[in-house]
Write a structure and sequence with these properties.
The complex is a heterodimer.
Chain A lengths: L1 H13 L18 H34 L4 H29 L2
Helix pairs in contact in A: 2-3
Chain B lengths: L4 H20 L13 H22 L8 H21 L7 H17 L13 H22 L15 H40 L4 H32 L4
Helix pairs in contact in B: 2-4, 3-4, 3-7, 4-7, 5-6, 5-7, 6-7
Classes of the chains: A mainly alpha, B mainly alpha.
Chain lengths: 101, 242
């Protein structure tokens, strides 16, 4: 029963492809693929960088809890690490703005 | 041609000078009526403001009764100096003037965009590139000054039989430092402007203020990060060989 419901779920997801048939008569593809892919690219980049920054923040918070006297060093490492990870997401944004007309 | 009020003022009085300079360097001018662009005009404004600020501070320095302004500037100077001492080690005071000026310039450039009628010069790719090239040239020069010709040995790696591999990797990584400094600063400022504009187009009242506040926070942080990274690169360049 469970497998059957999964099968139906997958089949209904395939219905998402139906709008592709609508393009048959058009002069050319009018879908703006650059906009769609740039949305996905930015979402993936931001999501992964969010995970990376969460790991960095969690590690530094734990280190601060274990050794509050080392606050300057831990703070420095945290800020530096966060900025470097942030810039990775920003590279994606810059490519989008360089390529989207 | 759409330009800011201050840019229009500069173009009116100094446009002929800029045009003559550009023609002497054989650079094609896109809009001869406005040869000075918005970003250049804003940079000039920041430079004039900083010059006046430093002159004001210098004129009010006093050992017996320091005023509020002196406290603020001493705090800034001490902050940069403590940080460079922590990262670079001994004899780091000679880098403090450069790092402080870089910090104040980038900070003021970032914050200038929040004021209506002005725009951040750092929101165009050219200005952060200029700051990054300056930082790159500075730390390499300091490396040569501290170690002489032996500074090149830094690029060759720890062992001599890997130097054929280490040299291209090190060169590319140093070039990538310039790229990352530029893009980090430019993209943060540009994205802050974009996000404020997007939310302004959605909800014109109230909500964009939150993003403008975030942009101010990011401006401070990015100026600090630029100087922090320059300090780290400096420490890598002038560190005494062990």
């Amino acid at each position: 029963m469970r497998t059957l419901s999964y099968v139906f779920l997958a089949l209904s997801a395939l219905f998402l492809a139906v709008p592709a048939y609508a393009q048959g008569g058009a002069t050319g593809s009018t879908t703006n693929w650059v906009a769609i892919t740039s949305g996905f690219a930015m979402a993936i980049a931001s999501g992964l960088c969010g995970l990376g920054q969460a790991k960095a923040t969690a590690a530094s918070a734990e280190a601060l809890g274990r050794n509050p006297a080392a606050r300057p060093g831990i703070q420095l490492a945290l800020i530096l690490g966060l900025a470097l990870i942030e810039s990775l997401a920003l590279y994606t944004l810059v490519i989008i703005f360089a390529k989207v007309k | 041609m759409e330009q800011l009020p201050f840019t229009a003022l500069l173009n009116k009085y100094f446009g002929w000078l800029a045009l003559a300079l550009l023609h002497a360097l054989h650079i094609r001018v896109r809009h001869p009526a406005a040869p000075i662009r918005d970003s250049v005009a804003m940079e000039i404004l920041v430079a004039i403001f900083l010059l006046l600020f430093f002159i004001l501070v210098r004129s009010r320095l006093s050992v017996e009764s320091p005023g509020g302004l002196q406290h603020v500037v001493e705090g800034l100077h001490g902050f940069i100096q403590n940080q460079s001492e922590e990262i670079i080690g001994h004899h780091s005071e000679r880098f403090t003037p450069f790092l402080t000026t870089l910090f104040v310039f980038i900070l003021l450039s970032n914050l200038l965009g929040v004021v209506p009628g002005f725009e951040s010069p750092t929101a165009t790719p050219a200005v952060p590139l200029g700051c990054a090239i300056l930082a790159f040239v500075y730390y390499n020069l300091q490396g040569f000054k501290a170690k002489g010709a032996h500074y090149v040995a830094d690029f060759l790696g720890p062992v001599w039989w890997l130097s054929w591999l280490m040299l291209p990797i090190e060169l590319i990584s140093h070039m990538a430092r310039m790229l990352s400094l530029t893009i980090r600063l430019f993209a943060n400022m540009f994205a802050g402007d974009m996000v404020t504009l997007v939310f302004f187009s959605l909800v014109p009242l109230g909500i964009p203020v939150i993003f403008l506040g975030l942009h101010i926070g990011v401006s401070l942080l990015q100026a600090y990060i630029f100087v922090l990274l320059t300090t780290v690169y400096l420490s890598g360049a002038v560190a005494a060989a062990h």
